[in-house]
Amino acid sequence: MIKAINIHKSFDGTEVLKGITFDFRKSKTNLIIGRSGAGKTVLLKTLVGLITPDEGEVWYDDIDFYKLSLKETRKLRKKVGMLFQGNALFDSMTIEENVRFPLDMFTDMSFEEKQEQVNNCLDRVELEGVNDKYPAEISGGMQKRVGIARAIVMNPEYLFCDEPNSGLDPKTALIIDELIQSITKENNMTTIINTHDMNSVMEIGENILLLDNGEVAWTGSREEIMHTDNKYIENFIFASPFLKKLKNQALGSYK
Amino acid sequence: MGRYSLWLLKVFSKPEKTRMYYNEVLRQIEEIGFGSLKIVFIISVFIGAVTAIQLSYQFGGTLIPSYYIGYTLREMIIVDLAPTITSLVLAGKIGSSIAAEIGGMRQKEIIDAMEIMGLNTPAFLVLPKIVGAVFSVPLLIILAAGLSIFSGFVTATALAGFTPADFVKGLTSFYDSYTVWVMIIKAFVFSFIIVTVSAYHGYFVKRGSIELGKAGTDAIVYSSILILVADYVIAQVMMG
């Protein structure tokens, strides 16, 4: 589990996070949702230590993240995997080398063991025959899968995904969502996804944090979304008349 | 300056996996050393030729013995022209490339991805470049000095009316190996400046293509200024 307690962060006098407190649960797909500029990415980067909060605490199970020394932080980070919005793959390395990179850097595994682990991860994300290709030679959806494979190659306990569906068509986005969710269950990870893709919210949102203007506007699960009359949810999730109509129809069929 | 110093401390902290650094050092030697051979060859030919022509103009009609051209050209090239001009040109070539490479990695979140993996990114990205440059640049500068002197010899004898015997006599007169050490020390210091200043500007680049371009420009400008300042300091300390 990851706990955020009273997180505050300002940039140049503008307060972006205004006291966020939330529990991200283990073995669940935890979603941070909200409009553009709501503070999602800042919160995600604060949780992972890429941005230091002005105030507040972040706990990884029983470890106070911001009390760790640099050495301890680096040790903890070996238990963390992250999928970046732009994938952050190394252009000069092949797919195989990209996925193998954390193993090369941090393990004493033999080449054969590393190769087996890399192939297992690539199989898990359903990528075959791309080992020797470079990131620029494969599609955006495939690059996302490589990013996931690299994020899970060290068997992390915590997985962070920043906008995993951005730039993908709805079908590929759905496949990526299902992949992240099933990997979360299989590996019993704490997964935190930052998204504004409504399909993701409704498909895999088991523990959702809605941010609005740097504050917690709503928390709950995808099932609860359908039944809440929270104005932020109404304005954000069911912003379009089409979705409003769908919701009303769905609720009608419940009755 | 404070941030640069703190960042340098991270650059020189213990590497995670020496083997990965070793491979990267070899790549840097190839890129910085072999990749700069052509430009070093071109500038060296012109440094030697221009120096020979200007010295021949200065010496013309004076009582200075004609063999002094070889001596003066050798001293000018070894002590200052080869290390300083070569380094200034390399600051443009290598410096902009390092700033763009590391800055691009920052903007594409690749550095963040490495940080998340638990990597000491200043060390992993910069230390191999420093080692590669500190190994390659002095060799390039020694090569530049040799080529410049040869080019000066050809120009002085073929175009400026000096005899090969006079030039060689001057070249071998009053030789003091101390000047070569001055050149080598300059080469080490200048290569360190080029890599660290350029990498620093790339590492802390902000978002956007304009910022990336600015980082490249700053890398070249600040490296060049610092090279000239260091040139003065070394001259003052070692020859003042």
What can you tell me about this protein's structure?
The complex is a heterodimer of chains A (255) and B (240). Chain A is α/β, with parallel strands linked by helices. Chain A contains ten helices and ten strands. Chain B is mostly helical and 240 residues long. Chain B has one domain (2-239). Chain B has helices spanning 2-11, 18-33, 37-59, 68-107, 110-117, 121-158, 164-171, 177-203, 209-239. In chain B, helix 3 (37-59) packs across helix 6 and helix 8 packs antiparallel against helix 9. The chains are: A alpha/beta (255), B mainly alpha (240). The interface between A and B is medium-sized, with 26 and 14 residues.
The helix tally of chain B amounts to 9
Can you tell me the residue ranges of chain B where pLDDT is under 50 for at least 5 consecutive residues?
none
- Indicate the structural class of chain A: alpha/beta
So how many helices of chain A? Answer: 10
What is the subunit organization of this protein? heterodimer
Which features would summarize this protein structure in a list?
heterodimer; A: 255 residues; 10 helices; 10 strands; B: 240 residues; mainly alpha; 9 helices; elongated
Give the helices and strands, then pairings:
The complex is a heterodimer of chains A (255) and B (240).
Chain A: E1 2-11, E2 14-24, E3 29-34, H1 40-48, E4 55-60, E5 63-64, H2 70-77, E6 80-83, H3 95-106, H4 111-124, H5 140-152, E7 158-162, H6 170-187, E8 190-195, H7 198-204, E9 207-212, E10 215-220, H8 222-227, H9 231-236, H10 241-254
Parallel strand pairs in A: 3-8, 3-9, 6-7, 7-8
Antiparallel strand pairs in A: 1-2, 1-4, 4-5, 9-10
Helix pairs in contact in A: 3-4, 3-5, 4-5, 5-6, 6-7
Chain B: H1 2-11, H2 18-33, H3 37-59, H4 68-107, H5 110-117, H6 121-158, H7 164-171, H8 177-203, H9 209-239
Helix pairs in contact in B: 1-6, 2-6, 3-4, 3-6, 4-6, 4-7, 4-8, 4-9, 6-8, 8-9
